[in-house]
Amino acid sequence: MKNINRENFGKIDFDKGYGLVPAIIQDYVSNEILMMAYMSKESLEKTLESGYTWFFSRSRKELWNKGETSGNKQRVKEIISDCDGDTLLIKVEQIGVACHTGKKSCFHNKIVE
After folding, report:
1. How far is Cα 88 from Cα 25, in angstroms, rounded to an integer?
2. CA distances (Å), origin 57, targets 5, 63, 83
């Protein structure tokens, strides 16, 4: 990816979350929240190198590329960190659906209406 702000990249605080930061994935056009996953420094670096999202699986203890097996990839358009540097907002062009259940977004189970 081009236009990487290395100064802001260096401010991301992976130590607060035991080496991980939450990443909120949002549709670049509609602004719909698609999913949330965790990123390690290595998965963020792979995301920056490839232009597609990479995450860290806490259960499998390994990196995974969104859409690697399903084809439902996420082309990164923008990455923004919050004011504390401990959460990322990643705006993507979603190719296919984001949720492993087949729904467009992982956020479809209403708790309060």
Report:
1. 8
2. 26, 6, 25
